[in-house]
Specification:
The protein is of the alpha/beta class and about 260 residues long. It has 8 helices and 12 strands.
Length: about 260
């Protein structure tokens, strides 16, 4: 019964008919790329930054050729996408690129549909949030550590395409509870990100108006001291999973409720 409720919750979030639980997020990506191959796709586009670094390796294993789409510091440029997407069968992006920039998913999806390009959206940063987990031909994500649904295990894939693999059966109420409360964790992290952006308004913050789970800011010793003082973990950039600039990614998404400001 719990397992069926988990699937139903994901169906409600993604607006897709077919749902499956996978062993992890990478397994969901692998299965999504296999669906692309089955549907006749030969190649796929990845963003040049703010993506997931294992995607090219998974594409190689499945037999998909791939290229990288130039972005504006991680955000998909709709005009540039329109010029190139017609030469590709599919596009993979994260709904919150690098966890720091909200992608214009509706516009991206329309460009893809106009060019017969399938859109795969990694929604682990926006599960439960309308517009972040229900736009695309294939929606997938992870329930791993530091995700919105931070269960620590498993992933999911959702589509109107038929699946030729079996879903894992998970009978755990805590996963269902985390799914149902996903928007609460999302809103908490987004609110905290906006607070941090205000505190760092004397520095260059990338996409300060965007909903985000991480804050990406120019590299500066004061910012590093700020992170250490606040107890915020961070990544030094450039790094593909975040931004291709000399910057600091404050990993706010690694916090749990009540852990900011030493609490």
């Amino acid at each position: 019964m719990i397992y069926e409720n988990i699937l139903e919750q994901l169906k409600n979030y993604t607006k897709k008919n077919n749902i499956a639980i996978t062993s992890n997020g990478n397994d969901a990506i692998f299965k999504a790329f296999e669906i692309l191959k089955r549907e006749g796709c030969k190649n796929i586009l990845f963003p040049d930054q703010a993506g997931w670094w294992k995607c090219p390796d998974i594409a190689k294993k499945v037999g998909l050729e791939f290229s990288f789409l130039e972005t504006k510091d991680g955000m998909v440029d709709i005009d540039l996408l329109g010029k190139f997407v017609g030469d590709y069968d599919s596009l993979y992006i994260c709904s919150l690129g690098g966890y720091y920039v909200e992608q214009p998913l509706f516009e991206i999806y329309q460009v893809c549909k106009d060019n017969n390009c399938l859109l795969i959206v990694d929604a682990c940063s926006g599960i439960g949030v309308d517009g972040l987990c229900n736009v695309g031909d294939i929606i997938l994500g992870s329930f791993g550590r530091w995700k919105i649904v931070d269960y620590g295990n498993y992933g999911f894939i959702a589509s109107n395409f038929d699946f030729d693999f079996n879903s894992l059966v998970v009978e755990d109420f805590s996963l269902l509870k985390k799914l149902k409360n996903a928007y609460i964790r999302f809103n908490f992290l987004v609110s905290l990100n906006f607070e941090i952006k205000k505190e760092l308004n004397n520095f260059k913050v990338y996409f300060p108006e965007s909903r985000s789970l991480n804050v990406v800011v120019e590299k500066n010793e004061w910012v590093l001291e700020y992170c250490n003082r606040k107890g915020y973990e961070y990544k030094l950039c450039p790094v593909y999973n975040r931004i291709n600039k000399d910057a600091i990614s404050i990993e706010v998404k690694r916090l749990n409720f009540g852990e900011s400001d030493g609490k």
